């Protein structure tokens, strides 16, 4: 429930800024607010400036919503192979990377309220896995144990 509430608040906050800038641009704000733009550029500059800010804010909102939805979905697929592990990369795209067991330099488990996060550091790149991405907490622990065993041979 807490994750849903935080995602809903991100959506409201992202769209509220866009809506506010669009409203300012549409209503032609008071000249006391836009006096500097009018003097520096032209009398038509303030509405164009605010419409430009509204468009940039909309693009930023779309990016925020994409990042939030991807981070909430977590890792979709992990695999322990014979010589390497296939895990999601620690980035916005969360694209899968193959990390050879011999290249793993550190496996760190961080406690986050309500869950745990495993940070796998290696020469091939870093990966972050949330315990809630696994079907059960025991699966997360079993994955980390198997990864440690294969890392140390």
What is the structure about, briefly put?
With 153 residues, this protein is α+β, with helices and mostly antiparallel strands.
Query: How large is the count of helical segments?
Result: 4
Q: Please write the string of helix (H) and strand (E) elements.
A: HHHEEEEEEH
Shape, per Cα inertia axes: elongated
In terms of DSSP E residues, the strand content is: 15-25%
Pick out the low-confidence regions.
none
Description:
- The chain has helices at residues 2-27, 31-40, 45-73, 137-151, and strands at residues 79-80, 84-88, 96-100, 104-112, 115-122, 127-130.
- The chain starts with a helix and ends with a helix.
- It has 153 residues and is of the alpha+beta class.
- It has four helices and six strands; from the N terminus they run H-H-H-E-E-E-E-E-E-H.
- The mean pLDDT is 80.
Topology diagram in text:
Blueprint: H1 2-27, H2 31-40, H3 45-73, E1 79-80, E2 84-88, E3 96-100, E4 104-112, E5 115-122, E6 127-130, H4 137-151
Antiparallel strand pairs: 1-2, 2-3, 4-5, 5-6
Helix pairs in contact: 1-3
Name the features.
three-stranded antiparallel β-sheet; elongated; 153 residues; alpha+beta; 6 strands
């Amino acid at each position: 429930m807490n994750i849903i509430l935080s995602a809903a608040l991100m959506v409201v906050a992202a769209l509220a800024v866009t809506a506010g800038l669009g409203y300012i641009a549409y209503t032609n704000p008071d000249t006391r607010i836009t006096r500097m733009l009018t003097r520096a550029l032209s009398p038509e500059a303030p509405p164009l400036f605010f419409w430009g800010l509204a468009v940039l804010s909309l693009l930023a909102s779309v990016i925020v919503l994409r990042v939030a939805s991807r981070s909430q979905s977590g890792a979709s697929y992990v695999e322990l192979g014979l010589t390497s592990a296939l895990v999601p990369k620690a980035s916005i795209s969360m694209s899968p990377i193959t990390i050879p067991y011999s290249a793993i330099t550190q496996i760190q488990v961080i406690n986050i309220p309500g869950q745990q996060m495993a940070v796998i550091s290696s020469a091939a790149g870093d990966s972050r896995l949330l315990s809630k991405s696994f079907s059960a907490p025991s699966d997360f622990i079993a994955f980390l144990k198997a990864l440690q065993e294969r890392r140390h041979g």
